[in-house]
Amino acid sequence: MNPLQIGNLKVNLPIIQGGMGVAISLSGLASAVANAGGIGVISAVAIGMTEPDYMKNYREANKRALRKEIRKARSLTDGVLGVNLMVAVTDYEELFTVALEEKIDVIILGAGLPLKLPQYVIEKGFENIHTKFIPKVSSAKAAKVIFSYWAKNFNFVPDAVIVEGPMAGGHLGFKPDDLQGELTPLADIVEETVNEISYFEKEFGKEIPVIAGGGIYTGRDMYEIMQKGAKGVKMGSRFVTTHECDASLKFKETYVNCKKEDITIIKSPVGLPGRAIKNSFVEKINSGETEPFKCYWKCLKSCDSKNVPYCIAQALHNAATGNMDKGFAFAGSKAYLATKIQSVSQVIMELKVDYYKMKYLEYLRNFLGQHFVPEQINIPIVIPHINIKLA
Ligand SMILES: Cc1cc2nc3c(=O)[nH]c(=O)nc-3n(C[C@H](O)[C@H](O)[C@H](O)COP(=O)(O)O)c2cc1C
Question: Which of 45, 71, 183, 334 is surrounded by the most beta carbons within 10 Å?
Fold first, then answer.
């Protein structure tokens, strides 16, 4: 497994843990993943809900909670830490400023196109910073829009790009119709994006890694997508069922107990579809019922709070704290593979074993020929640091 190189930042384990809100990935999970060699990511969306004064003082509570979680994570690891920001929230620039003030290593920008971001960085005087900027997009076309805009207007391009396919957990950058029937394979989106980005690599004389996410759950998934040109992977669901994940035990058990058919698409007040685990709350909302709420502030730019059937931030936070009757768990399409709660280091070990098993099988196939090495083969092999049995 080669390290993920993002400019001068070397990430030994090419895994970015997906930022998960509300309060699913905070300092606990982020520091554990960073200690394992990957990029541990704190989700900033509505993070102030963990503070007692959120309802009265939401903006300040969000900033304070983000700063606190970054500092706590930093006290627990020397590894690489990131913050996940949603461009669609109304206090995005304030949270962005906090992350930069705290000298975070990486900022991931999803749920919208961060076109004007470099201008903001210049205006705020944050030019000579080490922070890497990584937009998260759902298509090569969206990547091209951001790269072209930044290149033309600021003579600057993002340090890496994450492409997330339609199998991901959380909000999806696809139209509901695109999520019916046969889904666009992530491998196709990765290959198209690698092609698109190669132009900017030449123009700016630097390598720009493409990182793939959405439905990546096993070492085999990692291996296969990295064969298509991804230099790293982003994984959210796989890290939910860890002891270090900041969500309640009830939230994690929802994953362990769910079946493949429980994972469904929901309509979110964000204006995008989302993938989640079906429960009584999801069924209630899908049947047209509403969950009345008082909106203390307009946290999402696109939310029509008077007409949406429920508050998404409140529902996600309720679920994170274990109140599953008043919320639901976002989850990727492979979340049903969870069978137990493990430590982050156990997860990483399983991923490595699986990854190297695939790599070794391919090596054997290239050496001996395809038909001499069936999918099911039972020979013990030794790979660096890990002794595995192919089965
Ligand atoms: C429980 C959960 C919450 C999430 N919350 C956010 C979020 O607040 N902001 C965001 O940009 N992405 C969010 N995501 C998406 C993840 O960052 C990541 O891109 C996704 O989980 C990758 O797909 P996977 O779950 O199949 O690995 C969330 C995903 C999950 C599963």
Answer: 45
